[in-house]
Automatic annotation (TrEMBL):
<dbReference type="InterPro" id="IPR039848">
    <property type="entry name" value="Ribosomal_mS35_mt"/>
</dbReference>
<feature type="domain" description="Small ribosomal subunit protein mS35 mitochondrial conserved">
    <location>
        <begin position="95"/>
        <end position="178"/>
    </location>
</feature>
<dbReference type="InterPro" id="IPR019349">
    <property type="entry name" value="Ribosomal_mS35_mit"/>
</dbReference>
<dbReference type="Pfam" id="PF10213">
    <property type="entry name" value="MRP-S28"/>
</dbReference>
<protein>
    <recommendedName>
        <fullName>Small ribosomal subunit protein mS35 mitochondrial conserved domain-containing protein</fullName>
    </recommendedName>
</protein>
Amino acid sequence: MGRPSTSKPTQTYSALRNNVTMPFEVEPGRPYVSPYSQFFANLEAGRTSLGTTEEMEQRAAELLERRLECGIPESELRFQTVSYGRFALPPYVSPGEHRVTVKVALAAIPFKNELEKEIFLEIVGSRFDPKKGDLKLSSEKFASRIENKRYLVDMIERIVSNARKLAKEFADEELTTR
C-alpha cells in the first residue's frame, strides 16, 4: 500500500499556503489597509462588485426582460399546476392533472387608456378578482401541461389585443359621429 510522501513541499505550495494562512503584515509606520477595502467601499456606496448600482441593475434587467406581444412581462405570469404520484393501476393519470392555471395582476397589463381597461374587464368577466386585482384563467383543453400553458398565454395575448382593437374602433366611431 502507499505510504504518505515524506518529501518536502514544493516552493510554490509553501508560498501559497503562507499567503492563505499567514495574517496580513502591517508595514511599520503605515496604517493597515484591508485588501477588501474596495469591496466594502462598493457595498457602502450601494454598488455591486461590478461597480454598478442597484438602480442600474434594475434598468438593465427591465431592458432584458422578455415580454409577451401584448407587452406583459413574462415574470408577471404566475402558473400553477397539480401533480399526483404515478399510479401502478389504471387509470394512470388523475383527473385535473393536466390543468394549468395562470394568474396575472391587472397592474402588469400595459393599457394605453381607460377604455381599453374597461373593455378588457368586460371581456374577462368573472375571471377577474377585484379584491386581489388578478386575472385568473385555467385550461385543461389539451392532454399536456405545456400545451395548456401555451394556450393560456395565447389567450391572454388575444384578449388584450382584442380589447385594444375594440377600444380603437369605439374611439374612431366616436370621432366620426361628432
